[in-house]
Amino acid sequence: MLHVAEAARVSVATVSALINGTATVSPELSQRIEQAIRDIGYKRNAIARSLKMGTTRTIGLTVPHITNPFFTDVVSVIQQAFDRAGYAVMLCCTDEHLNTQDDQIRLLLDRMVDGLIVARVGDGAILKRIVDDANVPVVLLDRVCQGVDTDAVVLDNQRAVFDAITYLIDLGHRRIGYISGSFDISPMHDRMAGYREALQTAGLPAEPELVRFGNFHEVDGYNATMQLLSLHDRPSAIFSANNPMVIGTMKAIRDIGLSCPEDISVACFDDFPWSDVFRPQLTTVAQPVQAIGEQAANLLLDRLAGNRDAPPRKLTLKGRLMIRNSCRPLGAIAQSVSA
Amino acid sequence: MLHVAEAARVSVATVSALINGTATVSPELSQRIEQAIRDIGYKRNAIARSLKMGTTRTIGLTVPHITNPFFTDVVSVIQQAFDRAGYAVMLCCTDEHLNTQDDQIRLLLDRMVDGLIVARVGDGAILKRIVDDANVPVVLLDRVCQGVDTDAVVLDNQRAVFDAITYLIDLGHRRIGYISGSFDISPMHDRMAGYREALQTAGLPAEPELVRFGNFHEVDGYNATMQLLSLHDRPSAIFSANNPMVIGTMKAIRDIGLSCPEDISVACFDDFPWSDVFRPQLTTVAQPVQAIGEQAANLLLDRLAGNRDAPPRKLTLKGRLMIRNSCRPLGAIAQSVSA
DNA sequence: AACGCTAATCTAAACGTTTCGATCATGTCA
DNA sequence: TGACATGATCGAAACGTTTAGATTAGCGTT
Question: Higher model confidence: residue A235 or residue B308?
Fold first, then answer.
C-alpha cells in the first residue's frame, strides 16, 4: 500500500479510504490511485488487516472424520454457506481423538478465527474451558455437551432410533442387536435411549448381550457384528448407530456366510447417497444434512453479524426413516405377508 | 504479551525470547514470565506473528467437490499430513466452477497462505497468472494444466482406463458405452485416450454415439446412461469416468427396468469403500488415495521447508483395476465359462 | 477582510509480534 | 587495575494495515 501511495503521490490513508470507501476521495486522486494499483498489482494484505481490525473473516470447523459421509455432506454445506458470506473455513479433523481436538481448537483460536463450529469429541470439560476463554461464538454440531452453554444444532436422536427400532419390532423382530458408538458423546446416549424406549414400549426385555460398543470405525462394526452373530441365540436384526460401522456389519455378515435380508435384517443411522441402487438397499435413518449445515452456519453468521448477547439457541431437527429392503418381516407377519 | 511483560517486570523482548527460545533467559526471569503467562492466560497471537514473520503456517486446498469420495479421502490424508507438520488447512470447494475457484485462490493468497494444493477446474490460463503472481509454492492435484509448470501429483489415467476397457473387451464386450466428464480438465482427456486406445488395440471401431459427456454429477451420469440405453443398438457395457456419475448410471439402469450385470455390465473410475459388500459389487479403477494425498503433501512440505528452486516435479501414480462382479462375460466367452 | 464551514487529504498512532543492535553487569586475563 | 569477552536484558523499529484527529484549501457570509 505504501508503494501504491508513493506511486500515486498520495498518503496511505487516502489509498485506504479509496479501497474501503470509508471517505470520499476526489476523482482525480481516485484515478491516480487506481492506476497505481493496477501498475503495481497491489493486493491488500488480509493478515495486516486482520491484526488491525481484530477480525479475520475466517471460521474454524472441526469434525471427527471427514470421510464419514454425514460429516462430508455437512462440511460441504457449511463451506458453501460461509463462502457466500465471504468467510474462509479452516477445517480440522479430530479423528475422534480428544487431544487432537483440543489442540486444534487452540490452534484455531490462536489464529483469531471469528467463530467456531465444533462436532466435538470427548467429554466437554476442556472444550468448555477453551470456549469460555475464547471470546468467539461457538456452534456445537451434532453433539452437545453438558455445561457448554452455546448455540447448537442437533438431531432428535432418541426419537429417530425409537422409530427405527419400532419399525423392526413391527416387522416381528424380537431380538435386535444394537451397535453403539462410544458413549462419551451425547448422540450415542440418546440413540441408545431410543433403542431402550422402543423395546420397553413393546414390552421386550433389554438384553445386555445384544448391545455392543465400537469406536465409529468400520472395523469396530465388523467386530461387534461378529460377536452378535456368534451368540447362542443370535439376533434376527442388527441396528448400527453410525454409518461407517454398518459397512463392517455387512462385511461380517458376508464373511460368516449369511445374507441380508434373508438371514438377518440390518438398519443403521445415517443415509448413503447410493442406498437406493445397491443391494441390499439399506433401511436407514436419514439426517437432514442440508438443513443441519445451513442452520449451523446461520446460527454462527448471526452471532458474527453482531448478535452476541442472545441466549444460547438449540435447534433440534428430525430424522427420517428411509424404509428400503434390508429388513424383512418375521414369523406370523412374514406369513401373512407371503400369504 | 505486553501485559505479561509488565506483570513479570521484564521487557516484551525477553518474553518473546523465552517463548521462542531464541535467546537464553535466566532461570529467575523465566520463572516470573511463565508464572505471568499462566496467571494472565496469555496466548500468542498468531496473526501478529504471521504479519511480522511473513508466514502463516497455513496452506490453502481447493477441490471441486468434497462430497466426491475420491476427494474426500485425499483431503483427509492431506489434512492429517499438514496437521502433523503444524500447519492449518483452509479448505475451499469450487463446485467445478471456474470463477469460484479463481476467487477462492485469490482469497487464499490475500490471506498469505504459505502454499497451495489445487485440484483445478477449467483451463489453466487464469490459474497460471494467479500462480505466477503469487510467490507461494503450488502443487497441482489430480489435474495438471498446460503452461502451469509446477509440482503435480497425477494418476496414469490413460493406462488405468486402457486396462479397464481391455478387461471388458476380453470379457467379450464389443459395444462399450463411455461416460466422460467435461473435457476441460486433463484427466478426462487421458481417460478418453485410454478408452480409444483400448478399442483400437482390439481392432474395434470408435463409435461416437457410444461416448457421452456429463459434468461430474450424479444426474449427468443418469442422463448420459439414459441416452446410451435408448440407442437402437445399445451397449453391453458402460464405463463411467468418475464415481458420482456411476450412481446415476445405476439409477438409470434400474429405472429403465434392466439389471446389472445380467443385462448390462458396468465399471467406473474411483473406488468406493463399500464396493465389496453391496451388490452389484462394482468393478472399479481404484486410485491410491493415500499415496496421492501423502505425495502432494510431501511435495508442498518440501517446498515449504525451503527447497524452492528445484525444478517442478511431476509424480505419476498407477491406478489399480478392482475386478468384482458388475461385469459379466459375453458371447462365446460366456458359453465357455458356463460350460 | 475576516470568519466559519465543508470537503479532501494527510500525519501519526495503533494492532501484537519479532529482532537488531545497544546497554549493562559480571567475570577473566594480562 | 584496566581492557575485554560473555551473557542477559532491553529499547525501538518494523511488518501492512486502519482510523482518529489535524491540516489545508476553497467557498460563501457577514
Answer: A235
Question: Do both B77 and B29 map to the same domain?
Answer: no
The whole domain housing A38 covers 2-44
Q: How far is residue A90's CA from residue A83's CA, in Å, rounded to a whole number?
A: 12
**Does B282 score more than 50 pLDDT?**
yes
pLDDT digits (tens, 9 = 90+) for A121-161: 776 777 888 778 778 999 999 888 777 789 999 999 999 99
Report the amino acid identity of residue B63: V
Tell me, rounded to whole angstroms, the distance of Cα A270 from its chain centroid.
Answer: 11
Q: Are strands A58-63 and B314-317 parallel, antiparallel or unpaired?
A: unpaired
With a CB-CB cutoff of 8 Å, which residues 190-209 of chain B face chain A? Answer: none
A22 touches strand D (CB under 7 A): yes
C-beta atoms of B76 and A91 within 8 A: no
Q: Is residue A49 in some structural domain? A: no
User: Do the domain assignments include residue A107?
Assistant: yes
Residue B50 lies in a domain: no
Q: Assess contact for B236 and B176: CB atoms under 8 A.
A: yes
Does residue A161 share a domain with residue A116?
Answer: no
Give the number of domains in chain B: 3
Cα–Cα distances in Å, from A84 out to A45, A87, A195, B97?
A: 21, 7, 40, 14
Taking the stretch 17-56 of protein chain A, residues with Cβ within 7 Å of any atom in nucleic acid chain C are 17, 23-26, 28-29, 48, 51-52, 54
C1' of D28 to CA of A24 (Å) = 22
d(CA B134, CA B308): 14
Gap from A127 CA to C14 C1', Å: 33
> For position B339, what pLDDT does the model report?
44
> Three-class SS of residue B28?
helix
pLDDT recorded at residue B320: 97
Question: For chain D, which bases have at least one atom within 7 A of a protein Cβ?
Answer: 7-12, 14-21
- CB pairs A-B closer than 8 Å: 139
A110 and B45 within 8 Å at the Cβ level: the answer is: yes
Strands of B151-155's sheet, edge to edge?
A: A314-317, A151-155, A138-141, A115-118, A58-63, A88-93, B88-93, B58-63, B115-118, B138-141, B151-155, B314-317
Same domain for A125 and A161, yes or no, is no
What DSSP line would sit under B87-119, residue for residue? -EEEEEE-TT-HHHHHHHHHHHHHTT-SEEEE-
Q: Is residue A199 situated within a structural domain?
A: yes
Whole-number Å distance, CA A14 to C1' C22?
Answer: 37
Measured N-to-C along each axis, helices A98-110 and A125-133 cross at an angle, to the nearest 10 degrees, of 0
Q: Is B325 helix (H, G, I), strand (E, B) or coil?
A: coil
**Mutation site, A42, A90, A91, interface B, largest B CB count within 10 A:** A91
